[in-house]
Amino acid sequence: MVMTQISYPKKLVIASRESRLAMWQAEYVRDCLKKLYPGCDVSILGMTTRGDQILDRTLSKVGGKGLFVKELEVALEEGRADLAVHSLKDVPMQLPVGFELSCIMEREDARDAFVSNDYATLADLPAGAVVGTASLRREASLRSRYPHLNIQPLRGNLDTRLGKLDKGEYAAIILAAAGLKRLGMAQRIRSLLAPEDSLPAAGQGALGIEIRAGRPDLKDWLAPLNHAPSAMAVTAERAVSRALGGSCDVPLAAYAIWEGSDSLYLRSFVASTDGQSICRSEKKLSVASMDHADRMGLQVADELIAQGAKDLLPPR
Ligand SMILES: NCc1[nH]cc(CCC(=O)O)c1CC(=O)O
């Protein structure tokens, strides 16, 4: 009788930022791994990243997405941790050499949420109402759809942002629904924004697990956490962003949803920050592989570029 050698992880360390949301996400992955590998010792190494320290300026002005992942990658590099859990939205489109996304987990609600103590929807807000958002994408959408609103920057982690709303600094704020739901604060969501009002960012609501490249054992152990439909949808979205040099200083949205079991509907826009100029493109295709999803994203990016999207982007 031939016995196949099944390897089994004995100890796994998850690197995580220390914000409440990041910790929730790391604990979620830890619990999934413990269920898969009951005897395995899974622990979390919490750390503060540059992105967490810089709370006073708009993120796009201080270096963008990489700020939240660099320290975690150093921990992977030095062998202090095996995997890092990220909100995929914060992960740069191209990882540094030596790292890879080993899997993408099933996506939470990818939409943006309208949060307010006094109003139920964006449409209810009176002229001049102050709306808080840290994202250039949300800002451009709101300025274009609701030019009578006063859009103001809003930084900080989820609790800080909600605190500023509750202190009355804003009439409403826009947050990702996924973060609120994960932290048990779904009741703060007054309404979900239609994609026409605020198209989500590439990868929003999905968790990605990053590892050092060249660890096939680890990749195999994590494979059961991959959710293929979510992975294909966000791959299409991230391809658009990658082709356009996507970073935090670009008002860019890319949102793919499945219609039926095999048809992927991808919508995207690139805007000027003032919301005055917007290029839009969308496509519906039958998609069956990651490669195919990636090509779909590139096609949508090409259409945006043909419409002059590059003129809206900062020079590279
Ligand atoms: N840019 C910050 C960020 N990164 C991930 C989330 C939570 C939602 C998600 O997992 O996409 C948020 C908060 C927000 O945009 O309101």
Automatic annotation (TrEMBL):
<keyword id="KW-0627">Porphyrin biosynthesis</keyword>
<keyword id="KW-0808">Transferase</keyword>
<dbReference type="InterPro" id="IPR036803">
    <property type="entry name" value="Porphobilinogen_deaminase_C_sf"/>
</dbReference>
<dbReference type="Pfam" id="PF01379">
    <property type="entry name" value="Porphobil_deam"/>
</dbReference>
<comment type="similarity">
    <text>Belongs to the HMBS family.</text>
</comment>
<dbReference type="InterPro" id="IPR022417">
    <property type="entry name" value="Porphobilin_deaminase_N"/>
</dbReference>
<dbReference type="Pfam" id="PF03900">
    <property type="entry name" value="Porphobil_deamC"/>
</dbReference>
<comment type="pathway">
    <text>Porphyrin-containing compound metabolism; protoporphyrin-IX biosynthesis; coproporphyrinogen-III from 5-aminolevulinate: step 2/4.</text>
</comment>
<comment type="function">
    <text>Tetrapolymerization of the monopyrrole PBG into the hydroxymethylbilane pre-uroporphyrinogen in several discrete steps.</text>
</comment>
<protein>
    <recommendedName>
        <fullName>Porphobilinogen deaminase</fullName>
        <ecNumber>2.5.1.61</ecNumber>
    </recommendedName>
</protein>
<dbReference type="InterPro" id="IPR022419">
    <property type="entry name" value="Porphobilin_deaminase_cofac_BS"/>
</dbReference>
<feature type="modified residue" description="S-(dipyrrolylmethanemethyl)cysteine">
    <location>
        <position position="248"/>
    </location>
</feature>
<feature type="domain" description="Porphobilinogen deaminase C-terminal">
    <location>
        <begin position="232"/>
        <end position="305"/>
    </location>
</feature>
<dbReference type="InterPro" id="IPR000860">
    <property type="entry name" value="HemC"/>
</dbReference>
<dbReference type="InterPro" id="IPR022418">
    <property type="entry name" value="Porphobilinogen_deaminase_C"/>
</dbReference>
<comment type="subunit">
    <text>Monomer.</text>
</comment>
<dbReference type="GO" id="GO:0005737">
    <property type="term" value="C:cytoplasm"/>
</dbReference>
<dbReference type="GO" id="GO:0006782">
    <property type="term" value="P:protoporphyrinogen IX biosynthetic process"/>
</dbReference>
<feature type="domain" description="Porphobilinogen deaminase N-terminal">
    <location>
        <begin position="12"/>
        <end position="218"/>
    </location>
</feature>
<dbReference type="GO" id="GO:0004418">
    <property type="term" value="F:hydroxymethylbilane synthase activity"/>
</dbReference>
